[in-house]
Amino acid sequence: MSRYTYLVTGANRGIGFEIVRQLLAEGKHDVIAVVRSIATASPIKALVDESKASKIVEFDITDRLSIKKAVKDLKAKGVDKVDILINNAGAIHELVAMEALEDSEFERLLRTNVVGANSVISEFMPLLQHGHRKVVVNISSGLGSISMNTGYASGGYNVSKAALNMLTKQYAVEKAASGFTFIALDPGWVQTDMGGKSAPLSPNESVSAIVSTVSQLTPKDNGKYMNRFGETLPF
After folding, report:
1. Nearest in space to 6 (alpha carbons), one of 77, 74, 70, 86
2. Where does the source fall among the domains of life (predicted)?
């Protein structure tokens, strides 16, 4: 069985943390956990330190220079490829109608959920091009579906995830001839700091399905928007 290198952003908590934990528990892959600050990410650092097959790196997805530095540092440590990038880091806002959403807050959401995701893809593209699988998973949301929009009052977040879906599709079209697989994936409503305690899914339930689905992706899935089980969702 081939050994692949995963890069997971937003790994200090929630879905990102659980993805890293489950991948390391499988013992089949090398995992690079991304956090904004190693100094404030003790749980994930402890998890990574227990495994020889993992590394922890810090950068802010809204800061291109910090991403560039992280790529340089990883290369210096012998990382020469990334097979699967899971763009999980993101931001949400309080439930308010679009008309009440401050411009600065809207810009923060777009900067994090869309521009930040693009920055990570762009800066890690050279390592992804050397990967054996060339898979990029952008963690989206069912709330990013235009077709399924019911008016749920997290408009800025919804818009940013719809934009992330289009970003995914754009890359899928541009990189199809190079053997890449870009997908947008809805993890479901999960009990995290972002999802809240009333969410129906535990991180373990959501991520076990995500990890299984990602492991089975092929170039035929390029450009799809799917749920955690790999079922296609309407854009």
Report:
1. 86
2. Eukaryota
Q: How far apart are CA 157 and CA 8, in angstroms?
A: 21
For residues 75 and 79, give the distance between their C-alpha atoms in angstroms, rounded to a whole number. Answer: 5
Provide the residue ranges of all domains of the chain, joining segments of one domain with +.
Answer: 5-227
* Model pLDDT for residues 9-58, shown as the tens digit of each residue: 999 999 999 999 999 999 999 999 999 999 999 999 999 999 888 999 99
The Cα 66–Cα 73 span in angstroms is 10
Distance in angstroms (rounded) separating the CA atoms of residues 30 and 53: 5
* pLDDT 10s digits, 131-173: 999 999 999 999 999 999 988 878 999 999 999 999 999 999 9
* CATH number of the structural domain 5-227: 3.40.50.720
Count of Cβ atoms closer than 10 Å to residue 166 Cβ: 15
How many Cβ atoms from other residues are within 10 Å of residue 154's Cβ?
Answer: 20
Query: Do the beta carbons of residue 30 and residue 131 sit within 8 Å?
Result: no
Give the length of the chain: 235
Q: pLDDT digits over 70-122, tens only?
A: 999 999 999 999 999 999 999 988 889 899 999 999 999 999 999 999 999 99
